[in-house]
């Protein structure tokens, strides 16, 4: 896992899967909002980078 090790959803103890990181969950939510509210045909990679910046901001605020 990355810098932040919080998981978005509980994972059973006997699971072999790591689960989704909270940062990825926040990024997915931000990406959805960015795409739904986009007035341009921006490149998806640009939208993804912006979504992860929002997610990183959310993770930093959680640490305060």
Structure commentary:
The structure is a single chain. The chain has a domain at 22-63. The protein is 55% helix and 0% strand. The protein contains 2 helices and no strands. It starts with 21 loop residues before the first helix and ends with a helix. The mean pLDDT is 85.
Provide keyphrases for this structure:
mainly alpha, elongated
Instruction: Kindly report the oligomeric state of this protein.
Output: single chain
Secondary-structure element order, N to C:
HH
Rg value: 14 Å
Strand content: under 5%
Task: Give the % helix.
Answer: 40-55%
Instruction: Give the averaged pLDDT, no decimals.
Output: 85
Name the poorly predicted regions.
Answer: none
The best one-word shape is elongated
What is the CA–CA distance across the termini? 21 Å
Main sheet characteristics = none
Q: Helix count?
A: 2
| Category by helix and strand content | mainly alpha
Task: Count every beta strand, where a strand is a DSSP E run of 2 or more residues.
Answer: 0
Précis, in short:
This protein has 64 residues and is mainly alpha-helical. The chain contains 2 helices and no strands.
């Amino acid at each position: 896992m990355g810098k932040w090790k919080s998981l978005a959803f509980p994972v059973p103890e006997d699971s072999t899967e790591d689960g989704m990181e909270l940062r990825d969950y926040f990024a997915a939510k931000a990406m959805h909002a960015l795409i739904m509210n986009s007035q341009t045909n921006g490149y998806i990679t640009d939208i993804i980078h912006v979504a992860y910046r929002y997610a990183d901001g959310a993770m930093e605020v959680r640490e305060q």
